[in-house]
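Hi team,

Filling in the usual template for the complex we talked about on Friday. All components are listed, including any nucleic acid strands or ligand strings, so the model treats them as one assembly.

SUBMITTER: L.P.
PURPOSE: interface mapping
COMPONENTS: four
RESIDUES: 700
SEQUENCES:
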Amino acid sequence: MARRRQSVTIKHVAADAGVSLQTVSRVINNEPNVRPAMKERVQASIDKLGYVPSIAAQRMSGSRSYLILAINDRERTIADWTARQGGDWVDQMLLGGMLTASEHGYRMLIELVDTHDDHVERELGAALSALHPDGVVLTPPHSENSQITGLLAERGIRFARIGSKEPGPGIAMTMDDDGAAEEATRHLLELGHTRIGFIAGSEEYSLSDWRKAGWERTMGEAGLDCDDLCVRGDFGFDSGLAAARKLLALDDRPTAIIGSSDQMTLATLEVAHEQGLEVPRDLSLISFDNTPIVRFSNPKLTAIDQPIAKTIARAVELLIDRDGDEVEQPVVVSGELVVRQSTAAPPSGT
Amino acid sequence: MARRRQSVTIKHVAADAGVSLQTVSRVINNEPNVRPAMKERVQASIDKLGYVPSIAAQRMSGSRSYLILAINDRERTIADWTARQGGDWVDQMLLGGMLTASEHGYRMLIELVDTHDDHVERELGAALSALHPDGVVLTPPHSENSQITGLLAERGIRFARIGSKEPGPGIAMTMDDDGAAEEATRHLLELGHTRIGFIAGSEEYSLSDWRKAGWERTMGEAGLDCDDLCVRGDFGFDSGLAAARKLLALDDRPTAIIGSSDQMTLATLEVAHEQGLEVPRDLSLISFDNTPIVRFSNPKLTAIDQPIAKTIARAVELLIDRDGDEVEQPVVVSGELVVRQSTAAPPSGT
DNA sequence: TTGAAAGCGCTAACAC
DNA sequence: GTGTTAGCGCTTTCAA
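RESULT (copied from the run log):
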């Protein structure tokens, strides 16, 4: 266990094993053309000295940087962190991304970028120049920001677009928003609901309309009207309040509502309570996201889980293994409906 | 806006400005011995070409790596992420750490390390060799793991120890656990409580006993007994359940309980409800941590906020500015008592 | 199958 | 003040 003050380099290993630097390099990178005996000898020296290649040096000499950049919207992310309302998007990204990356000897670094900024390009460009990541994971709304995707494509950096279906450079991935909305709707249909309201999310996110489309289609297939049953919010709590009020003020009021985010659905729950409606007796609720908070409301919300960790894990894999191009796109990772206490049969009077 | 396929290097800038590489380097690093006119000219080229130095190259040539490593306990962190119970420790670290780091041109990278593992040293050593971070932020229980602090010291890497008071290498930092417990106790005292129970955290964390000490001292100063009023948990929900049952089974039952974590305090709330006690009418509760979930219980919990973001931000600053050594240690960043709905005067009968 | 040489982009040390 | 030289630790030629 030689432990030098300065960390051990490839030279030390080469000297110890009595081979050239090149051979050590080949062993590190699992390259062919190394005789087993040689390989073993070198590996022994590596283990003995506790040698670990310097990523900076590897990157310098034109090889990989072993870095994946996960990019999130700055404003939104900081707002979430500051509000401390229980959103765990970033944690789930880390859970899926970091762990998968590290299995492959990579690291994942979070980077915050302003979408609305005029200088997204400069901001992101600087990060790319400084870090030279081997891959980038884009989350909504960046996934569909052509300034960003364009820059990445131009620089020849592999990237995944979470929440995007469009063809084009980068690996498109979705969490099956359409199918999830269908599943939620179908669940309510099976319980006997016919007036199922829907609170859509911000138009800035394509997935908002995929969810809406899934609900609409399923309603249509069941021969049911959607007419005035959809209201648009912006994913936030306040917009949910407004949307819920609108829906619950309808003459033929919905007996169930699907909210496109936990915040909006929780807001709906609050409005329901305000109006003396009991959930799920008078009103069934299904939420999208399944962030921690849905477990703490009363009743606990039935929700569509967003498989963020799984999706990011898959993205990182595709980025690292470099077979993202061969895979059929969009890559879809489906979430599931987690049934809790906010859904039941509609009131019998209806 | 020259935009090359390959990113622009220091050479391009030097050529464009008609100066030597070194001069450009000096400008980048804000070094002296560059005439203002020269500096301006170089800066103009930098801006024009959109040049950003490659961190890998900077690191290679013996300068900084512009990287701060934030190390968390692997097992605990993954458990938290998987449980999705609303803990936001990592988010708060990122909020404080990432943002502060980026203000200084640094990045913060999260790294998960097993404390209990026999090969902490190898694991951490590998990360250090690969990344060569300029600084490391240690969180409990790593902060007091001498294998870890020893390795860091040996390698000459600056580090901060959050939740540690001991002298020794690295910057010791606390969130004033003792003072916070005092504040919580005092708040209850002022409301008129005299039987104040305390649920301590795992002994593996020194801060558990600092909190306990703060409570004990304050109780003592008020001439009050602590005798059977302290039960130890492990920060987790189940241990809180057990501790609360023990405390509430006491003959002279406490009218208030301070829990050393949100999970344990929430468990206490549940036990109270089980036993038909109303909070805060029959029992007051104060929690430690102030993670998102305390906002979603009924009643909302009064809690001592752990100023994680602030603390990590300060740690990163001290690490980057390299004046951590001159600062008085331990560096303490105080949290505050956030009064919500779980504290009131004790039942009048008492 | 192995090794030697060159160079990645940058900065330290030294000259000028 | 500014430029030159060397070299960081590694991988990519290319030669043996």
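MY TAKE: The CA atoms of residues 73 and 113 of chain B lie 5 Å apart. Chain B touches chain A through 57 residues (CB under 8 Å).

Thanks, L.
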